[in-house]
Write a structure and sequence with these properties.
Blueprint: H1 5-19, H2 24-45, E1 61-62, H3 64-72, E2 76-82, E3 87-92, E4 101-105, H4 111-119, E5 124-126, H5 132-167, E6 175-177, H6 193-207, H7 209-213, E7 222-226, H8 233-244, E8 248-252, H9 263-277, E9 281-286, H10 304-318, E10 326-332, H11 340-343, E11 350-353, H12 359-369, H13 381-387, H14 393-409, H15 417-428, H16 440-458, E12 465-469, E13 480-483, H17 505-515, H18 517-526, H19 536-551, H20 581-608, H21 610-623, E14 625-627, H22 628-636
């Protein structure tokens, strides 16, 4: 069967009028598919021509001339004609009860047969020419054409959308809310009261502008939130949006910069244009260091596209045309890499430090995140807050969540102290693994960790021991000796830089001795041939501390000379000492001398307390964990414990 005229017409029209404007390859493929779809009905529903299951044997058939002769001889009883198959079934007169039937192939026109049958009064029946395929094939053709039209419409819409995206490529991707319903207010933010007070003024300014303008005060143009990761900078921005009730735009700094030149600057212009139309409003830019880095810095010069984006941002914040009623809140944990023009007053008038929380801050954070958790009455949030100095708000939230997961896994009804202890270790150190089998490796790890813990206990200026364990942790940690960190060490900031803390020289030297305790124990107990690579991280810390003492803090024979600077360490090649090669060699010798003296002190202390070490190792192999109180009690049986001196911070 051939394709109908209307099928051909529709296919040709669609192919030439709609498909041709598309790409050549796409049009060619589409026409090929259309041809295949049009031919499919012919292949599926056409009548077979080469074979017919109803074809009778030769003995059951008659020729056309024989049929005419049989009619003349009055031997035909009835004739049934099928115009579709062009065959006739002839019933002959016979004495049998079942008259034999013969099949005759007919021509397109059979006038002689009709005339002779009428002359001899032979019944002539013509079968109905209605075939279900005759009505089904047009319907199938119509469905296929409809399917093809729908596919072409989808392709055209997709092409139009692609062209629309190309036209909107320079538009801002900022999320916009007419009234920011973040679900977070200042009551949901704990642990950073100073930052909340600073931002509360911004909210008050937006709500009661006349109260400030009547005194001649102007609205701050920008507020920069600075702090380590996880301290709640983005959470504060959400709280400001929830409290202010003004239009709120939020975007990440990385969304400005693209590989195409001019796109970032165009998005900045579009963002501030929308903000002007909805002033007064807030714009929150998260991780602004992605676009606000110092211009011209880094290896091989700066990134031109990023610098053009930064230039446009500087102009929009405080350029020739002011943006009245627009407050930009930005967040970063890398303030040292930001361009100085971005940090000046008039652009970011305020820099709010969002630092690691103190004891009261951690307690408030724990109270906020424990509202929806079932906690055993024996669990003290005050004790948890004292045990987690240096934890950020995100780490405290994660710790309580891990404790809840462990409680559900152990099929308990409420979180107990055991789950809290395991969760603190899991967040700060890593997930616990299966204990090691009794072997030489386990014994070597035990001596290594006892070396750290013993020196931590014997040295006057070292941090006191919290616990020592040989239960492996994820990340390749075979065991650890955990100190009790002095709360005062975190009053001035996190450990991003030692210069943030007022640390005395004797504290730093005792820390170096403590770091070297593990390697010293391996050396004294097993010999130099059996030392392991387990002290690699300890040696890195030792090298950092010793080099800082020589090159930055003036704690060596070089005197009060700063031979290195920490201002530009983020950039390639700037961490080299600001001195000659001869002085650099002297620095290396001075660092080596400090490390060598501390290592000899560690070996001497371990050698003098060998019986105590053996007893502690045997106990650690048996219990796998020794807490600080039990450890100090055993040590006090052998020697007098030193009185720990607090670190004089501030």
């Amino acid at each position: 069967m051939k394709t109908s005229f209307w099928s051909k017409f529709v296919l040709e029209t669609l192919a030439h009028r709609i498909v041709c404007p598309l790409k050549p390859k796409s049009a060619q493929r589409l026409v090929s598919w259309a041809g295949a779809i049009a031919i499919a009905p012919s292949l599926l529903f056409a009548s077979p021509t080469l074979a017919n299951a109803e074809t009778p044997a030769k003995k059951d058939s008659l020729s056309y001339s024989q049929l005419l002769q049989q009619i003349e001889a009055d031997e035909v009883n009835k004739i049934e004609i099928n115009p579709i198959t062009k065959k006739a079934i002839v019933t002959l007169k016979s004495a049998n009860t079942a008259p034999p039937k013969k099949t005759v192939d007919l021509f397109d026109q059979n006038p002689e047969l009709v005339e002779r049958a009428r002359a001899k009064n032979v019944p002539l029946e013509i079968a109905s020419d209605k075939d279900p395929l005759v009505t089904l094939i047009p319907l199938v053709n119509l469905l296929l054409i409809l399917f093809l039209v729908i596919g072409l419409i989808a392709l055209v819409r997709r092409s139009a959308a692609s062209s629309g995206n190309a036209l909107n490529f320079g538009k801002s991707k900022a999320r916009f809310q007419m009234e920011a319903k973040t679900g977070i207010v200042f009551d949901d933010v704990a642990g950073i009261n100073e930052a909340k007070e600073e931002l509360q003024e911004v909210v008050t300014f937006l709500k009661e502008t006349e109260r400030f303008t009547s005194l001649g005060a102007r609205i701050p143009k920008g507020v920069l939130l600075v702090g380590p990761p996880g301290t709640g900078k983005t959470l504060l921005a959400k709280a400001v949006a929830g409290e202010a009730g003004v239009p709120f735009f939020s975007i990440s700094g990385s969304e400005f910069v693209e590989m195409f030149v001019g796109v970032g600057a165009s998005r900045v212009r579009d963002l501030f244009k929308k903000a002007k139309e909805n002033a007064p409003c807030l714009i929150f830019i998260d991780e602004i260091d992605a676009v606000g880095r110092q211009r011209g810095a880094g290896y091989g010069g700066g990134n031109d596209e990023r610098e053009q984006t930064l230039n446009q941002l500087l102009t929009e914040m405080d350029g020739f045309e002011g943006n009245t009623g627009i407050i930009v809140i930005a967040a970063t944990n890398r303030p040292d890499v930001l361009d100085s023009a971005l940090l000046r007053p008039g652009r970011f008038d305020r820099q709010v430090i969002v630092d690691l929380p103190g004891y009261k801050g951690r307690l408030g954070i724990l109270q906020v995140h424990s509202r929806n958790k079932k906690i055993d009455p024996e669990v003290s949030l005050e004790l948890i807050a004292r045990r987690t100095p240096g934890f950020s708000g995100a780490e405290l939230a994660n710790m309580l969540n891990e404790a809840a997961i462990l409680t559900a896994r152990r099929r308990k009804d409420a979180i107990t102290n055991l789950e809290v202890d395991d969760a603190i270790d899991r967040v700060s150190i890593g997930m616990s693994m299966n204990p090691l089998m009794d072997s030489k490796k386990k014994k070597l790890i035990a001596y290594h960790e006892i070396g750290h813990a013993l020196l931590m206990t014997l040295l006057e200026n070292a941090e006191p021991l919290n616990k020592v364990t040989i239960i492996p942790r994820s990340g390749g940690i075979g065991g650890f000796a955990q100190p009790l960190i002095d709360e005062e060490l975190f009053e001035m900031g996190s450990f991003r830089d030692l210069a943030d803390l007022y640390l005395p020289r004797n504290w730093m030297l005792d820390e170096i001795v403590t770091f070297l305790g593990g390697r010293a124990a391996e050396q004294e107990i097993f010999g130099s041939d059996e030392v392991t690579i387990g002290a690699s991280n300890d040696i890195e810390r030792v090298a950092e501390y010793a080099r800082e003492m020589v090159t930055r803090f003036g704690m060596s024979s070089f005197g009060l000379v700063a031979l290195e600077s920490n201002n530009n360490r983020s950039f390639f090649g700037s961490d080299r000492p600001d001195c000659s090669e001869e002085v650099a060699a002297k620095i290396d010798r001075e660092v080596r001398a400090i490390v060598f003296d501390c290592y000899e002190k560690a070996r001497r202390l371990i050698r003098d307390n060998r019986p105590l070490m053996d007893r502690l190792v045997d106990l650690l192999l048996e219990q796998e964990t020794i807490d600080g109180d039990q450890f100090r009690k055993i040590v006090s049986e052998y020697t007098e414990l030193p009185k720990k001196q607090p670190v004089p911070v501030r």
